[in-house]
Amino acid sequence: IDFFSTDPKLVFRRIISLRPPHLNNRDLYNPRELFRRNASVTQAWVEGAMSNFDYLMFLNTISGRTHWDMNQYYVFPWILSDYTSPTLDLNNPEIYRDLSKPVGALEPQRLNDILERYQSYDDIQGIPKYHYGSHYSSTGTVLYYLIRLEPFTTWNISLQGIYYFYFIFYFIF
């Protein structure tokens, strides 16, 4: 197959027609089915035999998240609301955030701004109303949080340009 001059759909159909053994099970990539088949993982987490981190990695993996794609990078929930106390009592329910709301709706003023923007949005060019202007897992967001680690520093320079870093370090130092 000449991959450069052939229609990608034809290439895909040809590969599927060969029925490679690792692609013949449709349930293999279905998160619901993966979760059902791996119920023992959830049970191990419930019983304390698996750490929260390992369980969240499992959930991220079966839902298709990966460290190979910055737009599908692993997601970990923000569960704390107290970022100022020198120590935390994990038995105190006041230190945890309200998980019934998205992070953007936790503060009344921020929620009001989001709802106001949504209500005042004019449907232009067929773009429907939306609450948030960007996805929480985008290349820029992931690189922002991981900027101090390689290779994310280099990737951030590639994304933003070197002058972005000159600007940041000029004001920091």
**Helix/strand structural class:** mainly alpha
Average pLDDT reading: 83
Major beta sheet summary: none
Helical element count? 8
Instruction: Please provide the ordered H/E string of secondary-structure elements.
Output: HHHHHHHH
Distance between the termini: 55 Å
Uncertain spans:
none
What is the gyration radius calculated from CA atoms? 22 Å
Strand content: under 5%
**Overall form:** extended
Topology of this structure?
Blueprint: H1 8-17, H2 31-37, H3 39-46, H4 52-62, H5 108-120, H6 139-145, H7 152-160, H8 162-172
Question: Top keywords for this entry?
Answer:
extended, mainly alpha
Describe the fold and architecture.
- The chain has 173 residues and is an all-alpha fold.
- It has eight helices and no strands.
- The chain has helices at residues 8-17, 31-37, 39-46, 52-62, 108-120, 139-145, 152-160, 162-172.
- The longest helix is centred in the middle third of the chain and has 13 residues, at 108-120.
- The mean pLDDT is 83.
Quick rundown:
With 173 residues, the protein is mostly helical.
